[in-house]
Amino acid sequence: xxxxxxxxxxxVTQSSASEEIEIIQSLWSGYGKVSRYRLIDSxxxxxVVKFIDLNPSGKHPKGWNTDTSHHRKVKxxxxxxxxxxxxxHRCPAHCSIPKFMGSFxxxxxxxxIMEDLKTHFPIVKDHVxxxxxxxxxxxLANFHATFLNEQPKKLWExxxxxxLDTRPDEFEKLEHQELKSKTHLIDEILNQCKYQTIVHGxxxxxxxxxxxxxxxxxxxxxxxxxxxxxMKDVAYFLGSCLSxxxxxxxxxxxxxxxxxxxxxxxxSRQYSSALxxxxxxxxxxxxxxxxxxxxxxxxxxxxxxxxxxxKVNKYxxxxxxxxxxxx
Length: 327
Hints:
Structural class: alpha+beta
CATH topology of the largest domain: Aminoglycoside 3'-phosphotransferase, Chain: A, domain 2
Radius of gyration: 20 Å
Number of helices: 9
CATH architecture of the largest domain: Alpha-Beta Complex
Strand content: 15-25%
Helix content: 40-55%
Number of domains: 2
């Protein structure tokens, strides 16, 4: 371990010693790792450390080793650090995230020290039932209500890892000509919607950790957190854990559930100055109409990045076609 970081880790965790005991996962494209550390003589038994190596790795698993890709990732880690330092403390208990404990940087190396969620949220799921899908939708609704009408200071101006302006290489590869000709209009419609919030930006199932009983969840990985319509997170999440047939069958019921949770949290926050002049019915009407646009926006990215991806399915293509036909 880097000695200066080790000294910082011991200081912020009030430890006499630390030991890396597990690599939880490697970061995408070889930019570092997420590890669990055991602490000695500390109030915390363990912490999670995200180590980031900002040197170009040249290891992208899909071959997208470009300067654009590298600069996007560098900014994403800067955004994530700002998220934990400046924003994360505002997340209430019903949209749990790891508690931020400190950040350290030296040259092209960065570290983020976080609470270990394993104590209360030890389970990461590959498959979920509808009740568990709703647990995650409740988290997203609470998150979106918490940051409704907030300006994404020091975050991505437009959140999500597939945002068009950050994906020129994938857009260039896009072969669907009607979609390509209308992509910028779709992007504009989403970006200029009246009601905006802070979106997680990578709200896939793998980034949610569940409690033992499956009734509560916490989210991780905030590299692409930023401004936008909440439907971007919802569309991406549902596509990450449901099949084409399941999306088609349960879409309306799950959207109804999301908006009922959003309204419940919205009503409890009416005192907030950011919400005083917000018409919830108008917000819901706007966002429901934008759900197919959010699906189409992500499908655009997939068709340029990896057109044979399993998420390019009948459900997504049908919604995409309905949007294209409406423009």
